[in-house]
Amino acid sequence: MSAGSHRRATLYALGAIALWGTLAVLGLELRAVPPFLLVGSALLLGALCGARGLRPGAVRPAVLLLGVYGLFAYHFCLFLALRLAPPVEANLLNYLWPLLIVVLSPVFLSGVRLGRRHVAGALLGFAGAWLLVSGGRLGFAREGLAGYLLAVAAAFIWATYSLLSKRLGSFPTSAIASFCLVSGLLSLGCHALFEPAYRPSVGELPFLLLIGLGPMGAAFYLWDRALKEGDPRVIGTLAYLTPLLSTLLIALAGVGRLGGLALGAMALIIGGAVVGTWPAAARS
Q1: Longest Cα pair distance anywhere in the chain, in angstroms?
Q2: CA angle 134, 127, 17 (to 5 degrees)
Q3: What average pLDDT score do residues 121-140 get?
Q4: What is the pTM of this model?
Q5: Where are the domains of the chain?
């Protein structure tokens, strides 16, 4: 991989991570909106980011199925997990996906091997995410088992979707628009089946627009470009910057505060990113 390609992929990944980092703070303004309605509406807006790619029949069925697997099945499992298990533990298990991207890379991609630095960086990142999400305290309850399994399934789905996107590689990034469109419609169908009817208020509409065009829209396009041009072992490690940025933005919004534990967690995540990405940059 050339140095230029590595830099571009890193910038694409950081762009997606930056947008995903805003999801929690924007979601605070939309906490009254039922989850499937929020995701469905946001994904339909996200389809607008690549509206020029929305051509009937332009996306092969197998590729479209992969996109629906990634965008719809991931959110479906995650939201069910958050309902069936304590949200802190479920969210932490969901954050296994960057680690899974790193460790599963040799399974899905030919010519890719794991170095000790890749594994160490991903583990440091997960340790930091654990401290940020849980505050160092976890209590896995037996009655939440179904939710925990769904959270792990969500992590596995997003990791394998990401790796399969790189493995296929032949479909254009504009196909993400079709992924968003179909997944958004399926999410709205789940809203109609499982959630009470809800009409967003005028005050909620700007935040819904921001989520749809940002973390639930443009971020997916940037992530796709990053994976196709970059090293998934490096990108997976960088992904642990997402909970770090999310925590910082929530603190800046005045909803939370940064204590010594959070600062230690951030040091672990940043350290993991340095350990996991520096050698790749140096060899490119």
Answers
A1: 54
A2: 85
A3: 78
A4: 0.88
A5: 3-283
